[in-house]
Target: LacI family transcriptional regulator
Amino acid sequence: MVSVVAVATRAKVSPATVSRVLAGRVPVSAETRARVLEAIEQLGYRPNEVARSLRVGRGRSVALVTGDIEQGIYATLAKHVQGELETLGLDLVLFNLGHRQDRLRHFLERAPSLGLRGVLLSSPHVMDMEELAPVMKSVAKNGIEILSVSQDLSGHGFPSIIHDDVGGAVTATTHLLNTGRGPVAFVGRIATSAIGRARYDGYCQALKARGLEIDPALVWDISQGYRADAGHQAMAEALAKGLRFRAVIAASDELALGCMAAATDRGLAIPGDMAVVGFGGLAWVGFARPAMTTVALDAGAIARAVGEFFKARESGAKLGKRRVIPANLVLRQSA
Model:
C-alpha cells in the first residue's frame, strides 16, 4: 500500500504538506499542490478513510448493528438503509451480534477508534442498560450518533425509530377474533426479546379488550429458538398435547412458516382448521402456500427516517426522541 511518506518523497515535500493538500483546509501554494497531486496520481495513492476520519473527527461510515443478519427483516433493513445513506454520502458497515450482548459491548467500546459517524442499533434483545448505557453515552460523547431502529431506548436518552409492534399485534389478534378464529395462540421470544415482548403485549391487550383470559398453555415462549424450526416444534408439541385453539400469531414470518408446516404435517387445513399470522412482511410470504397473512413492517420508512435523522443532525435541527412507524396487517390466504 502506498503511504503518505512515499507521496511526500516523490513530490519532494514533507508528509505534513501532503496531509494539508489532502485535507484541503490549509492554504498550500498552487505549485506545491500540483506536485503533490501529480505524485498521488503517479503512485496510485488512496487515503486511509478510517485514519483520515479519526484525524478530522468526522467519519463517513454508519454501522448497522443487527441481532442476527440471517433473519430476513435485518437483511431488508440493511438494503434500504444503505440506499438512504448513499444519498447522504455515507457508507454502511454491518456488524452481527449473533444474539450476544457481550459482542455489542465490545463493539461499542471500539466504536470511537473506527471513525464512525453513527451507530444504528437494530437488536431485538432485552439489553442490560445498566451495563450498556454508560458505554453508549461515552460513544456519543465522542461525536458518534447512536440511534435505535428496533426497540424503544428513548427512556434511556437515546433517539429511537421503531415500528408499532404492539399496535400491529393488537390488529392481528382482533382480526382473528372478529373472524371467529379463537382461541388464539401466540408463539415468539418473550423473555429475551424486547420486540417479541411488545408483540406479546399487543396480543394480550386484544384479548383483554374482548374480556378474554390469557391461557398460559397457548403462549409459547421459544427464547432458545429463532426461525422456522422453532415454530414447527412449538406447533407440533401443542398439537400433540391436544391443546384447543384455531389460530396462532407468530412473532416473525419465519416462525409462522414453521407453524404452518407443522399444522399441515398433522393433516390440518390452513386456514380451514388453523389460521396463521406472521410478523415482518418479508417478500417471500406471498409465495408460501397458502399465501401468508402477516403484519408488515416498513423497512423503507425506517430507512427514510434514519436519513432524516442524519440530515437534521447536519443542519442542527432538533428532532423528537421517539418516532413510531405503523405496522400494517396484510391479509392473505392463511388467515
In short: Residues 299-315 form the longest helix (17 residues).
